[in-house]
């Protein structure tokens, strides 16, 4: 018996030493991450100072824009003539001429250009200037329809093939592909057509050997990578195009891809030595704003309607929602309040979606309320606002969706309504994606940051060096001057961990809302830990702190799958073991308030809204009493609520 006790004592010592090692490992990993980030920033500064700032790491070959920014090529006169006579444009935007020259020279190229930068012209104009046709792979039918509407107005012969195409139309297209005298210039297909239609691939091969397949354009090329934000399995099959048609130049286009994603895409598409042109991510005419989401649906609708009826009266816009149900509910609410709105989501009939798209394009309706199905490449120049009723699932998605505003280079607003529970709704949606949760948390960190320039944050994400002084107060953080302070929240973290460990011992699972209830001393008495007092924090501060601990990996999500839903619970993460070291401190930045955090259990009085949160007191003063909702006769009256709700 004594031997057993001795062994148990040794086992306890081993466990204790392992715990201590785990704490040290966590601290070393944190330091490693800090050094890696510092190294990356230093490399960026060196690259910028050395003048090699074409964007990105040295591992990806880049093209000097100056090498192709000229009009002395054999095709230049025709390119100039077509630009003016067909596309009704007088000048090229940044990098358009360079990209057109590269693809006209028969070279493979990737073009990374911000949403609204004019990527489509870089393969449409060369298609008109070349014999044969250009094959364009697009991820969405709505995108193809949008492109075809524009091309039809310009008088450029084009066609598309998709699951809704009639047999007669398919036969006509197949015949045109093999006809050397055909006027067909652009043929749009989905990646599924390449991956699954042997008949179509056979026709393409015949067109290639007949000299009719002039160019391949892969739009939204980031969809190839399973590490990207919009991975499409059938995009991975597109490598067959360069294997089967090696002499046909390929142009890949995207607005949202990091360097690591582009490296992966090059391998997938079999173009390891393709040239690359990268434009700056910056859209100087867009104002980026994160707005605290009201606590209930009706208040959020009222806020949207008030600003739409004010600064956006009679203007075009898009509102993005998370789910089909959300789009339908919001559309009805907007219509009841006198807003000319249409609904768009993937489960609608094709004809209904097309009607909404066309009506919006022709200004018959002013607002499209949509899921991401109203997606990539939507091209309407005069979109004055893009609102996100919920959190985007990644920075790439947000940048692309918000970038549909202001393509006419006039000022436009990009407003995202950020709410605590939206994080966990999105988590259940991205759980099956390779890096879905990582990308979601990066988006959450962007929303949580109340100090850094929004453009600087976006630039850092897309591996670009950016001087935040160039923002010109065109984001909420640069336009406002919110006072915040670094706060020690170690004791709060310890309290939350005690509650979660107590729940685990009782075989209970806590959702984020249940955790807040238990922290406030509410809910089941068995979850009330004696040493934990309700914190002296507002509800918003409690939510911000939980999110901070989640992002810093002291807490983690535990997703539970049922036949009807996926539920997000919170658990203690391994990094919480660091708290066993009494010297370990957890801090976060919080808005300044008069009373100190944790000083009492009294209810915190409602904080006074700061001047920068009230648009009537900001430099961007655009609202007046006209911003109040003016309901139609059938609508009920709506209260005038603050623009930003705490």
UniProtKB/TrEMBL annotation:
<keyword id="KW-0413">Isomerase</keyword>
<feature type="coiled-coil region">
    <location>
        <begin position="4"/>
        <end position="52"/>
    </location>
</feature>
<keyword id="KW-0175">Coiled coil</keyword>
<keyword id="KW-0347">Helicase</keyword>
<keyword id="KW-0479">Metal-binding</keyword>
<feature type="domain" description="Helicase ATP-binding">
    <location>
        <begin position="100"/>
        <end position="275"/>
    </location>
</feature>
<dbReference type="GO" id="GO:0000724">
    <property type="term" value="P:double-strand break repair via homologous recombination"/>
</dbReference>
<dbReference type="GO" id="GO:0016887">
    <property type="term" value="F:ATP hydrolysis activity"/>
</dbReference>
<dbReference type="GO" id="GO:0003677">
    <property type="term" value="F:DNA binding"/>
</dbReference>
<keyword id="KW-0539">Nucleus</keyword>
<dbReference type="GO" id="GO:0005737">
    <property type="term" value="C:cytoplasm"/>
</dbReference>
<dbReference type="GO" id="GO:0005634">
    <property type="term" value="C:nucleus"/>
</dbReference>
<dbReference type="InterPro" id="IPR027417">
    <property type="entry name" value="P-loop_NTPase"/>
</dbReference>
<dbReference type="GO" id="GO:0005694">
    <property type="term" value="C:chromosome"/>
</dbReference>
<dbReference type="InterPro" id="IPR011545">
    <property type="entry name" value="DEAD/DEAH_box_helicase_dom"/>
</dbReference>
<comment type="similarity">
    <text>Belongs to the helicase family. RecQ subfamily.</text>
</comment>
<dbReference type="GO" id="GO:0046872">
    <property type="term" value="F:metal ion binding"/>
</dbReference>
<dbReference type="Pfam" id="PF00271">
    <property type="entry name" value="Helicase_C"/>
</dbReference>
<keyword id="KW-0597">Phosphoprotein</keyword>
<keyword id="KW-0238">DNA-binding</keyword>
<keyword id="KW-0547">Nucleotide-binding</keyword>
<dbReference type="GO" id="GO:0043138">
    <property type="term" value="F:3'-5' DNA helicase activity"/>
</dbReference>
<dbReference type="InterPro" id="IPR004589">
    <property type="entry name" value="DNA_helicase_ATP-dep_RecQ"/>
</dbReference>
<dbReference type="InterPro" id="IPR036388">
    <property type="entry name" value="WH-like_DNA-bd_sf"/>
</dbReference>
<dbReference type="InterPro" id="IPR032284">
    <property type="entry name" value="RecQ_Zn-bd"/>
</dbReference>
<feature type="domain" description="Helicase C-terminal">
    <location>
        <begin position="300"/>
        <end position="451"/>
    </location>
</feature>
<dbReference type="InterPro" id="IPR014001">
    <property type="entry name" value="Helicase_ATP-bd"/>
</dbReference>
<keyword id="KW-0007">Acetylation</keyword>
<keyword id="KW-0067">ATP-binding</keyword>
<protein>
    <recommendedName>
        <fullName>ATP-dependent DNA helicase</fullName>
        <ecNumber>5.6.2.4</ecNumber>
    </recommendedName>
</protein>
<keyword id="KW-0862">Zinc</keyword>
<feature type="region of interest" description="Disordered">
    <location>
        <begin position="596"/>
        <end position="646"/>
    </location>
</feature>
<keyword id="KW-0378">Hydrolase</keyword>
<dbReference type="Pfam" id="PF00270">
    <property type="entry name" value="DEAD"/>
</dbReference>
<dbReference type="Pfam" id="PF16124">
    <property type="entry name" value="RecQ_Zn_bind"/>
</dbReference>
<dbReference type="InterPro" id="IPR001650">
    <property type="entry name" value="Helicase_C-like"/>
</dbReference>
<dbReference type="GO" id="GO:0009378">
    <property type="term" value="F:four-way junction helicase activity"/>
</dbReference>
<dbReference type="GO" id="GO:0005524">
    <property type="term" value="F:ATP binding"/>
</dbReference>
């Amino acid at each position: 018996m004594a031997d057993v006790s001795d062994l148990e004592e040794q086992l306890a010592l081993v466990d204790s030493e392992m715990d201590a090692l785990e704490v040290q490992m966590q601290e070393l990993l944190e330091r490693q991450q800090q050094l890696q980030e510092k190294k990356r920033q230093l490399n960026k500064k060196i690259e910028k100072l050395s003048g090699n700032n074409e964007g990105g790491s040295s591992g990806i070959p880049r093209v000097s824009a100056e090498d192709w920014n000229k009009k002395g090529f054999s095709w230049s006169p025709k390119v100039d003539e077509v630009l003016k006579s067909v596309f009704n444009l007088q000048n090229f935007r940044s990098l358009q001429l360079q990209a057109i020259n590269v693809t006209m020279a028969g070279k493979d190229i990737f073009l990374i250009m911000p949403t609204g930068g004019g990527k489509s012209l870089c393969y449409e104009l060369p298609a008109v200037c070349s014999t044969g046709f250009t094959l364009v792979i697009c991820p969405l039918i709505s995108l193809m329809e949008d492109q075809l509407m524009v091309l039809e107005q310009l008088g450029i012969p084009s066609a598309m093939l998709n699951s809704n195409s009639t047999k007669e139309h398919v036969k006509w297209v197949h015949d045109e592909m093999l006809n050397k005298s055909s006027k067909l210039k652009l043929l749009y297909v989905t990646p599924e057509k390449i991956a699954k239609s042997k008949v179509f691939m056979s026709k393409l091969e015949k067109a290639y050997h007949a000299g009719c397949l002039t160019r391949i354009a892969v739009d939204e090329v980031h969809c190839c990578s399973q590490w990207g934000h919009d991975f499409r399995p059938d995009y991975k099959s597109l490598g067959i195009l360069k294997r089967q048609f090696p002499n046909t130049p390929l142009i890949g286009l995207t607005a949202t891809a990091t360097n690591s994603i582009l490296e992966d895409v090059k391998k997938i598409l079999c173009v390891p030595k393709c040239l690359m042109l990268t434009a700056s991510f910056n859209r100087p005419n867009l104002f980026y704003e994160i707005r605290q989401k009201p606590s209930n649906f009706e208040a959020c609708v009222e806020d949207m309607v008030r600003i739409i009826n004010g600064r956006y009266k009679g203007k075009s816009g898009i509102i993005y929602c998370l789910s089909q149900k959300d789009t339908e509910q919001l559309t009805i609410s907007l219509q009841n309040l006198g807003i000319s709105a249409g609904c768009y989501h993937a489960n609608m009939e094709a004809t209904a979606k097309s009607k909404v798209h066309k009506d919006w394009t022709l200004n018959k309706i002013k607002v499209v309320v949509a899921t991401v199905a109203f997606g990539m490449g939507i091209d309407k120049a005069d979109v004055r606002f893009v609102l996100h009723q919920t959190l985007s699932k990644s920075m790439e998605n947000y940048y692309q969706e918000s970038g549909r505003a202001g393509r006419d280079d006039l000022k436009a607003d990009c407003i995202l309504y950020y709410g605590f529970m939206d994080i966990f709704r999105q988590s259940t949606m991205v759980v099956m994606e390779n890096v879905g949760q990582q990308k979601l948390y990066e988006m959450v960190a962007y929303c949580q940051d109340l100090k850094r320039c929004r453009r600087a944050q976006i630039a850092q994400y897309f591996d670009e060096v950016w001087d935040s002084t160039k923002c010109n107060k065109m984001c909420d953080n640069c336009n406002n001057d919110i006072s915040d302070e670094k706060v020690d929240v170690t004791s709060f973290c310890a309290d939350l961990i005690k509650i979660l460990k107590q729940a685990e011992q009782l075989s209970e699972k806590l959702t984020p809302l249940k955790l807040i209830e238990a922290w406030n001393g509410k809910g089941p008495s068995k979850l009330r830990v004696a040493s934990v007092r309700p914190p002296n924090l507002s509800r918003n501060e409690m939510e911000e702190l939980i999110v901070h601990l989640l992002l810093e990996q002291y807490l983690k999500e535990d997703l539970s799958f049922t036949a009807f839903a996926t539920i997000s619970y919170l658990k203690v993460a391994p990094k919480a073991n660091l708290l066993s070291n009494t010297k370990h401190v957890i801090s976060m930045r919080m808005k300044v308030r008069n009373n100190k955090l944790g000083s009492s259990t009294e209810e915190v009085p409602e904080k006074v809204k700061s001047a920068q949160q009230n648009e009537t007191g900001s430099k961007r003063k655009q609202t007046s009493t006209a911003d109040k909702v003016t309901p139609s006769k059938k609508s009920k009256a709506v209260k005038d609520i603050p623009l930003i709700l705490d």
